[in-house]
Specification:
Elements: H1 6-17, H2 19-57, E1 62-70, H3 73-78, E2 83-89, E3 91-97, E4 105-112, E5 124-128, E6 138-142, H4 143-148, E7 156-161, E8 164-175, E9 195-201, H5 202-208, E10 214-222, H6 228-239, E11 248-249, H7 254-295, H8 297-305, H9 310-350, H10 362-389, H11 392-396, H12 412-415, H13 420-431, H14 433-471, E12 476-484, H15 487-493, E13 498-513, E14 516-525, E15 549-552, H16 553-559, E16 566-571, E17 578-587, E18 595-598, H17 599-605, E19 612-619, H18 624-631, E20 637-642, H19 643-697, H20 702-739, H21 752-778, H22 782-786
Parallel strand pairs: 4-9, 6-8, 14-18, 15-17
Antiparallel strand pairs: 1-10, 1-11, 2-10, 3-4, 3-7, 5-8, 6-9, 7-8, 12-19, 12-20, 13-14, 13-16, 13-19, 15-18, 16-17
Helix pairs in contact: 1-9, 2-7, 2-9, 2-10, 2-19, 7-10, 7-14, 7-19, 9-10, 13-20, 14-19, 14-20, 14-21, 19-20, 19-21, 20-21
């Protein structure tokens, strides 16, 4: 049997005596640790999986496209300084007809070498086999698309390739590091039912698109120390005569961008939210330990009289705090491991890896333990130092009674209407205003955390309403393979169910202002167009100027541009002109980094006829089936986006995580409320036990002394509700600013219902804490409490 040191035996007794408060503090610490471990473990899983997958499958570092370039150019690209491996390929859009699915499906067709083994962006075969180059009607399809349509090797699909419909057999199901996050053209969220990736043999795509001995896409890797910027500039020069649209690095590749952006958001969560919980835990440990030292003054004096040094006593109380927070760390580790596993499962469905392995390293657990225990010690250091410095003679004497002054906390005309118990409650709060304020602030954090979580639902609803309803009045957006004149509007308007058509021009470009540049499409909007109604974030209508650029504020910030500045637009298609255009206006929007011009002014500036390559359509819902059936056979269509489907997919993708996300933050906010209120009541009961027992003996009823004790907590909680609402708004603003990306800016919009629900949950948690303490109060032993130790 292990023999404990006397101070350690006292430590065990103290922990058991304070078990309720210790558990409450441990739960708050556990909440912060759980969020931290969940975030760090998920980041670790994503980073390790992505890095290993990229390396194993030789994911490219630079990507470039052209109209049609000869294969002989590949040798010149490979000879560029800093280039390691080069692979040319064919990439085109196609329309796919899937049995049982009424809408057209857009597919990216990517060639694979006839040898079946790519040098770069190598495929991982999940089911089936690789394509046979001899059989020109075979393809591999990406796993998300196959799962969405319940496809298997051997199934057939009708693919419209360059105006010719072909029956293509699925040879296998594959994954690619290039399409971890598979998102279609112009989409905000992945929609595997309406967008897929098909890999076909080089021979097949060369014949289908008249690219024999040519390519229109190239990928490459760099040697260690190779200059990415110089390589990109050299590739642009080589591809310019062949219709090059500008090379770009891996960091701008859409799939990789989404993965890295998700990792950044998890890092933001790991920095902000655990800090809230650990700050409250530090405050509570300080309050508990300060009260414990005050109660045990005589015991501390006796320990020092028996020879215990001040450092040993301070360390004893510090160990008490470490034990409380240590329990929270263990609970947080378990909860964080489980939440991290759940988050990894969510990302496994969102990002397509051959295997997303969840094996958290020691880093997440060490950091969370160090930060949590450090925060608890920081909260306890003042009280522990006070215990260590307490002189034995002073400690053996009772503490000096506090000084009381007659204080009017309210006008006499008001206090005359208050009963005696209520005046006692108010005086008790005003007697220690700092502690009352900090306690109320701690309870307010529970409201703030829940407001922040629920606010995401309000923000998403506003995003959908702003982008899809107020700005977009079309039902379908079609992308054309080649730009067309206005006569295409008449042709499309004759399709079944078409009520209105608008032709827009989207031009791939690089926008430059001073030393900053950005690869971004410039959208040409027809004069008087009504199907796309541009609006600011506050709902005000924005008109596209007749001349000059209309920039979103996000793009203007990236370019450091202001109204009146001149932007150089390098057109990455056609004649590749460089034009200088002034910034006519800037507007705020929640989604995208967009640039608009009048369509006629845009096409005139780039030296082309007044054409367009994007059609916006409004449909008669009763004729949508006939319209889509006809659309599947139109060879000029290179892409299609159905607004209703985009809205549904947006809600579905966000809804998968939102319910669980909000649920565990409800739990975390409840632990904050319970921990703060319960500790405050238990400390008040220990401090005022003799006073309440005396009042009970003097004739006050149990309900009245219960009101005196719980009324103080109720008053602090009531003050905490509006404070928590304000803190919630501030925390939501901080989170929104930290989570803002080039694609989304999260609006800080909090509905009245959100505040109400957050307050109700906090009140329910506080009530539960009060009921626990009320039971102890009802069992109060008057004789034992009234005994005075001489």
């Amino acid at each position: 049997m292990v023999k404990l040191h006397p101070l350690d035996r006292k430590l065990v007794r103290d922990l058991w005596r304070l078990r309720g408060q210790a558990i409450a503090i441990a739960l708050i610490v556990a909440s912060g640790v759980a969020v931290l471990v969940m975030s760090l473990a998920t980041i670790d899983a994503l980073q390790k999986t992505t890095s290993a997958y990229y390396e194993r499958q030789h994911f490219a570092y630079v990507f470039a496209s052209a109209k049609r370039a000869p294969q002989s150019l590949a040798a010149r690209i490979a000879a560029l300084p800093g280039v390691q491996l080069v692979e040319t390929r064919i990439v085109r859009w196609a329309t796919v007809d899937v049995d049982g699915f009424g809408e057209p499906v857009i597919a990216t067709l990517v060639s694979v070498p006839d040898s079946g083994k790519s040098l770069l962006n190598q495929l991982t075969l999940q089911r089936g086999r690789m394509v046979d180059p001899v059989n020109v009607d075979e393809a591999l399809v990406n796993e998300a698309f196959a799962d969405a349509h319940h496809l298997a090797p051997g199934d057939r699909l009708r693919v419209l390739m360059n105006g010719r419909q072909r029956n293509v057999e699925i040879a296998g199901i594959a994954l690619s590091p290039e399409f971890i996050y598979t998102i279609g053209p112009g989409a905000l969220m992945p929609d595997p039912k309406r967008y897929g990736v098909f890999w076909m043999s080089q021979r097949t795509l060369e014949a289908a698109y008249d690219l024999d001995g040519a390519f229109n896409d190239v990928v490459l890797t760099l040697l260690p120390g190779g200059s990415e910027r110089l390589v990109i500039e050299a590739i642009d020069t080589l591809l310019e005569p062949y219709g090059g649209t500008g090379a770009y690095p891996r960091r701008d590749q859409i799939s990789h961008w989404f993965v890295t952006n998700e990792i950044k958001q998890l890092e933001t969560m790991a920095r902000i939210l655990p800090s809230v919980f650990l700050a409250v835990a530090a405050f509570l440990t300080n309050v508990v330990l300060t009260r414990l030292v005050a109660i045990e003054r005589a015991e501390i004096g006796l320990l020092k009289a028996f020879g215990y040094a001040g450092g040993a006593i301070a360390w004893h109380y510090t160990k008490l705090v470490i034990a409380m927070s240590g329990l929270g760390v263990l609970l947080g580790w378990a909860a964080g491991w489980g939440l991290g596993r759940w988050m990894t499962g969510v990302y496994a469905g969102l990002f397509r890896f051959p295997g997303l392995v969840y094996l958290p390293g020691a880093r997440a657990f060490v950091i969370s333990a160090g930060v949590s225990i450090g925060a608890a010690i920081a909260g306890a250091v003042v009280a522990a130092r006070r215990a260590g410095r307490l002189a034995p003679a002073e400690a053996m004497r009772p503490p000096s009674p506090p000084l009381f002054r007659r204080r009017e906390f309210a006008p006499p005309w008001l206090t005359s209407w208050l009963d005696q118990p209520t005046r006692i409650v108010l005086r008790q709060v005003l007697r220690r205003p700092l502690r009352a304020f900090l306690t109320s602030l701690g309870a307010a954090t529970s409201v703030a955390v829940l407001v922040t979580a629920l606010q995401w639902v309000d923000a998403i609803n506003l995003l959908v309403d702003d982008f899809f309803q107020r700005q977009q009045h079309q039902d379908v957006t079609l992308g054309l393979v080649e730009p067309a004149r206005d006569d295409v509007v008449g042709a499309v308007s004759r399709l079944p169910g078409v009520l209105a058509v608008e032709l827009h021009r989207v031009v791939a470009a690089r926008l430059t202002h001073e030393q900053r540049s950005r690869r971004e499409a410039v959208i040409g909007v027809p004069a008087g167009g009504e199907l796309e109604s541009l609006r600011t974030a506050d709902g005000a209508a924005v008109r596209v100027p007749d001349d000059g650029l209309l920039l979103s504020s996000a793009l203007a910030d990236i370019l450091h541009a202001h109204v009146g500045d001149t932007i150089t637009i390098e057109v990455l298609e056609g004649r590749r002109r460089h034009i200088a255009v002034p910034v006519a206006a800037i507007f705020d929007t929640y989604i995208g980094t967009t640039a608009y011009m009048n369509r006629a002014a845009l096409t005139r500036a780039i030296g082309e006829p007044d054409t367009g390559n994007t059609l916006l359509l409004r449909l008669d819902p009763a004729s949508s089936t006939a319209f889509f059936a006809k659309l599947k056979r139109v060879p000029a269509i290179g892409g299609a986006t159905v607004k209703a489907a985009a809205v549904d997919m947006f809600h579905e993708t966000m809804g998968k995580t939102m319910l669980v996300y909000v649920s565990f933050y409800v739990f975390f906010s409840c632990t904050l409320a319970v921990g703060v209120v319960y500790n405050n009541l238990r400390i008040a009961l220990s401090e005022r036990g003799r006073e309440l027992a005396t009042l009970r003996v003097l004739g006050f009823r149990t309900g009245e002394i219960t009101y005196m004790l719980l009324g103080e907590a109720a008053l602090l909680v009531l003050f905490a509700l509006p404070t928590g609402a304000l803190l919630g708004w501030a925390l939501a603003s901080l989170m929104a600013a930290s989570f803002a990306t080039e694609l989304f800016r999260v609006p800080v919009v909090i509905e009245t219902d959100t505040y109400a629900w957050a307050m109700l949950v906090a009140l329910a948690a506080a009530t539960a804490s009060a009921l626990l303490v009320q039971r102890r109060l009802q069992r109060l032993d008057l004789i034992a409490v009234l005994k005075t130790r001489e």
